[in-house]
Amino acid sequence: MARFLKAKKESIGLAPDAFQYRGEKRVSGSKMGLVDYTIGELTEKEVLNIDEIVAYDKSPSTSWLNVDGLQDEGLMAGISTGFEIEPTIISDLLNTHVRPKIHEYDNCIFLSLKTLQYDEKSNKLDSENLSIIIKEHILFSFQERESDLFEPVKERLRRNKKRFRGAGTDYLAFALIDVVIDNYIYIISQIGERIESIDTELIESPSTANLEEINRYKSELVYLRKIIKPCREMIHNFTQMDSDLINDYMEVHLKELHNNIELANESIDNYRDILSDQLNIFHSNVSSKLNDILRILTIFSVMFIPITFIVGLYGTNFDNIPELHLKNGYYMMLSVIVTIVIAMIYFFRRKKWF
Q1: What fold characterizes domain 290-350?
Q2: Architecture of 9-284 per CATH?
Q3: Rounded to 5 degrees, what angle do the CA atoms 115, 117, 120 make?
Q4: What's residue 295's pLDDT?
């Protein structure tokens, strides 16, 4: 299946607020988990029905509802109704192929970005869509399937970090996005290690396997760029957003996000340059090796030209050839041939051609 652009025919002509899942079926159902916290108290529980948590939207505590699996369109409609979320937002998050973006609505901020997974065995990248809805007292995160990506954020909350628990949903959103971007950087570093290891192989023993690796990693970096470039735009817009849902203390944290995504973007550009250099080195090595082969073949061809001439002349089909009837004529001819070969080798070595 294509990785760079995915679209289904069934999506053509759908209304902007249609509650229809437009992604790959990764899980059979949806699972919801709630984390509700204040500075002094933390509650974690699995949620089976939206009605049991609607009250958290107006509570003084900070709540985080994570939804794994987006195929339950009825559940999504219930979230839209119960928490007064515009249907167009729900429609956007049900389209997992949407480009990373951020938009402010009357009562919330909606943003989407991609999470990355790297299969070390196949050296392939895969991405999933992550949608976040920021409201005053509750934050929603929607993932295509269950993962442990946000476990570090939950651990920070469990350890009763006062700065974290005392902040609002804006800081929670920062923490989630920060984990996603840190994961970008980690994956880029993994791929980067493999790219850098190609340098040694190219110098020691270049082969077609190196060329295959270079081309594969070039493709993966293009895919990374497809994911990270729009995410960079989204974070830039996030840092520039003037919203009542974003407190002043978030300025320094949003700048940190911006710096991290810039680091990821610059790293991709650096590794793309390295791969281009490696490709040039590979072709230079192949050309150099071919030139060496042609040089040796040319030298041997040049050495055999006078020998061929002598042998052809000596074997000329005439009766009156003085050397033909000499007792040592054959040995004289061999001596001349050997002398010419030695003289030519000496000449080639003096010229450093051989």
Answers
A1: Methane Monooxygenase Hydroxylase; Chain G, domain 1 (1.20.58)
A2: 2-Layer Sandwich (3.30)
A3: 165
A4: 78
